[in-house]
Amino acid sequence: MAGQSAKKQVAQNFKILKEIHLITWISYSIFTFFNYFLNRPQSSKFFIITAVPVFGSLYVIEKFGRPVLDPQGKIIRQGQDLQQEGLTEYLFDIIYYTVILNFLTILFNSSKIWWLYWAIPVFAVYKIYGVINAGRQMFGGGAKSGQQVEEYDGEKEQAKSKRQQKREARGDKPKMRYR
């Protein structure tokens, strides 16, 4: 029973990899058919530029997520969990976003759809800025000036409930102790 979770993860990773490859290759096959065989006026430049991040994402997902089994079926390496959050999730988002843009390009017959691809680096910059800003505040680099701190404390006082205010008022009174 000790290897049961590893077996589940191996099966899940195989399933996810099969689905992502199927989605990607069907998308690119349909895109290629519509744009090259039906002679639509699309530039292959955008197609090639946006295919690089997708194939890079597929390579990374394949490299780290593909389980390795020996000929008897024993697990040598189970691969990383492909359902985890973080970088793996962003790699899948890049793939899905590109597939959607492929179909929108086919639907609207315009290369201008590829300009929506700029949302990926803009989102990455936004997330990186959030991480850097959080780190700066954690280490004191984002401390507020004295006036802003006083204003903040005043807002905090007003936010207290009546019960909290009464307890604080009672806490200031001297308490009598009887033996």
Structural overview:
By secondary structure, the protein is an all-alpha fold. It has one domain (7-137). It has helices at residues 4-37, 44-65, 87-108, 119-138, 146-158, 162-172, and strands spanning 68-69, 75-77. The model has no long low-confidence stretch (mean pLDDT 81).
What order do the helices and strands come in, and which of them pair?
Layout: H1 4-37, H2 44-65, E1 68-69, E2 75-77, H3 87-108, H4 119-138, H5 146-158, H6 162-172
Antiparallel strand pairs: 1-2
Pfam families: TMEM208_SND2
Subcellular location: Endoplasmic reticulum membrane
Protein name: DUF788-domain-containing protein
Entry summary:
This protein has 179 residues and is an all-alpha fold. It has helices at residues 4-37, 44-65, 87-108, 119-138, 146-158, 162-172, and strands at residues 68-69, 75-77.
**Beta strand %:** under 5%
Q: State the domain count.
A: 1
Q: How many β-strands, per DSSP?
A: 2
User: Count the helices. How many?
Assistant: 6
N-to-C order of helices and strands? HHEEHHHH
- The share of residues in helices is 55-70%
Structural class by SSE content: mainly alpha
Q: List unreliable stretches of 5+ residues.
A: none
Global Rg: 28 Å
> Which strand order spans the largest sheet, edge to edge or round the barrel?
1-2
End-to-end Cα distance, whole Å, is 63 Å
Shape: flat
